[in-house]
């Protein structure tokens, strides 16, 4: 009797083990495939991101068409400001997630004077907006003449998952009123991390302090791992 129970239990274990193996082989582990056609898109800053989904589809090997799951995860302007990088995300019923990026034409939002009280007032308002925009774009506006300056070759970069990433290669120039560039390179500080093995958006910041204790601007680099 005891021997029969042992045999029965063994058979049950074998059946359960076989079932587990079959489930592991049949489990859906493949993410959908996102396809983007040649549609030319211009995105205006702050507008509805629905326009960015034109010409974008997603297909899954089991679920079929999963275009309805597509969303725009992020949009950020490139260094030249005339283009923007868009990150799309799609998933299937097994929650396998796919991501892909594309470049689209980019246009900054226009500032409109709704009062239109007079031509002179409208011109003054426009001058104020332009002056503020110039100050915002100047990374050295708040620095003293004695402070070092650091500039990057770009403010955004896209790399493939697992691709090597050299943080220092994106530094364009470092200047100071007293210290040499060679010395300043040894005093660079980089904050933030980029996980090249995980898809996502990362930001790192570069600063440098000269031998007199003056700190530079914080030059920021957005890194997209796709």
Structure description:
- This protein is of the alpha+beta class and 226 residues long.
- Among the domains are: 33-107, Sandwich (Immunoglobulin-like); 143-225, Immunoglobulins (Immunoglobulin-like, Sandwich).
- Helix content is 22%, strand content 33%.
- It has three helices and 13 strands.
- The chain has helices at residues 2-26, 119-137, 181-185; strands at 33-36, 42-44, 56-60, 64-65, 71-77, 83-91, 97-107, 149-152, 156-159, 171-175, 188-191, 200-208, 219-225.
- A hairpin with a 5-residue loop joins β6 and β7.
- The longest helix is centred in the first third of the chain and has 25 residues, at 2-26.
- It is flat, with a radius of gyration of 27 Å.
- The relative contact order is 0.12.
